[in-house]
Amino acid sequence: MFARLTFAFGSPEFRMRWGRKTQRFYVNARAIIEREHAGTREVLLQQRAKPGEPRTMELPGGQLDLFEGITQALAREVREETGLTVTAFLDDLNRTHTVTPGAEVECLTPAFVYQTLRGPVDSVGFFFRVQATGELIRQGDHAQGHVWLPFPQVRRQLDHDPAHFNWLTQAALRHLFAHAWREQATRHTCPDTSDTNMAG
User: Fold this and answer.
1) What sequence ranges are listed for the domain Nudix hydrolase (predicted)?
2) Which end of the chain is less congested by CB atoms within 10 angstroms, N or C?
3) pTM for this entry
């Protein structure tokens, strides 16, 4: 049996139809916002503040809008949830931009991707390690209680009290720590200037 994949117009979600069953499928962009403070590498976390959901800690990010670029969605979600402006990517995006008579396509390399194999929502998403500037807001879009925490403290809390973080943030942090992300990263300003435009 083949699935028919449709995009709900005006909605940031896909709907996969298996026969008569409709399944919602979400596509996300997520930010690991880092900074150096007092000689320590820190990451920004926030508390989920959506009605009916646990008040766990999470990394900023959310769903893509229709035909919205992944990095544009990332910057928008960070701004809406934290008040900060993404200024640099800490990993090379290797971005290319292709325009043909029938389509416009961007290809890039995130820090890593995730896929939900089982859980409350069916989703895939792209994580980016970034830097951001500005003033944190007290209450963002379904987000509050923003806090900068040293990576070693986050790792200890993840080991001893994983339920402090939501399920997706647990997975992202475990991936980050498991692969011993390099301490010193090259900054790539935002927007990335290495785009290669190709017409076909």
Assistant:
1) 24-175
2) N
3) 0.82
- Ordered by start, the domain boundaries in the chain are 29-185
Tokens 């209680």 belong to which residue? Answer: 145
Measuring CA to CA, which residue among 26, 32, 33, 25 is closest to residue 63?
26
Residue with tokens 């647990």: 170
Q: How many CA atoms lie within 13 A of 157 on its CB side?
A: 16
Q: Write the pLDDT tens digit of every residue in 117-151.
A: 999 999 999 999 999 999 999 888 788 899 999 99
Q: Which CATH class is domain 29-185?
A: alpha beta
